[in-house]
Backbone:
């Protein structure tokens, strides 16, 4: 892992990095360097590691005492688009322009991205856990909706270090099999009037999750209309579950039971 840019503002340190062909961003608190839980952020389709929504949520996590990381999915951000990417995007745009359903096409394309992204996320996690401010035993959470869920579901199924996940705004039959293998606590978001993901499709994916503890949060509005309070609820959810994993670890700095209270403010 090579850090390429390092800035600090409002007690948040942001470092850009590269790891082989992957480009990413790491946000950590300024202060004591002890190990701390880490949140992996999966961005949406057409976004990237420094999309405004990703940065805002990552900085909010850091304010609660966590570290946060995002990487560009294949064909996004600083990563070049392949011919496959260009063809898939063109096909999705044609169907949208014609008023035809696009979900299954999006899920199929995102599944191909996930096959590449999962080992990239695992390699990134390997590298980050060697840093003193994160540590090899620190618990890990995942937060990603829309395309972030298409990647996040199989990632949570395959990666035992992930202890809890915030998912949603997605469905599709192709995700049912990996969803059944997800066993960690999940908070799942549904937009009731989602113009991209029909509610019955999203509800079917929630039902397919193998987690013994899973919570459905449904709100009115379209695909991009998640209420602001759901972001705070997601942070509180991750704080609660990662705190359970963090108990007994030597650390300096914030107490993780307090992070949930901070998230709720």
Residues:
């Amino acid at each position: 892992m090579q850090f390429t840019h390092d800035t600090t503002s409002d007690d948040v340190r942001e470092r850009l990095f590269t790891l082989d062909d992957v480009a990413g961003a790491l946000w950590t608190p300024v202060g004591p360097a002890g190990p701390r839980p880490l949140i992996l952020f999966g961005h949406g389709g057409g976004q990237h590691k420094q999309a405004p929504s990703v940065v805002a949520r990552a900085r909010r996590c850091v304010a609660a005492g966590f570290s946060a990381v995002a990487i560009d999915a294949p064909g996004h951000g600083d990563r070049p688009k392949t011919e496959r990417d260009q063809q898939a995007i063109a096909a999705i745009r044609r169907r949208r322009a014609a008023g035809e359903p696009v979900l299954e096409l999006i899920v199929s394309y995102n599944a191909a991205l996930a096959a590449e992204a999962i080992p990239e996320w695992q390699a990134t996690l390997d590298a980050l856990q060697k840093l003193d401010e994160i540590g090899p035993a620190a618990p890990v959470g995942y937060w990603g909706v829309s395309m972030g869920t298409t990647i996040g579901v199989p990632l949570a199924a395959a990666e035992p270090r992930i202890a809890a996940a915030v998912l949603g705004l997605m469905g599709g039959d192709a995700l049912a099999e990996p969803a059944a293998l997800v066993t960690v606590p999940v908070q799942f978001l549904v937009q009731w009037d989602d113009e991209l993901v029909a509610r019955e499709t999203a509800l079917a994916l929630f039902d397919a999750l193998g987690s013994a503890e899973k919570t459905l949060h449904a709100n009115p509005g379209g695909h991009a209309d998640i209420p602001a309070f759901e972001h705070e609820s997601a942070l509180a959810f991750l704080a609660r579950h990662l705190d359970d994993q963090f108990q007994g670890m030597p650390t300096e700095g914030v107490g993780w039971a307090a992070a949930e209270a901070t998230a709720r403010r």
About this structure: The domain at 2-79+106-264 is CATH 3.40.50.1820 (Rossmann fold).
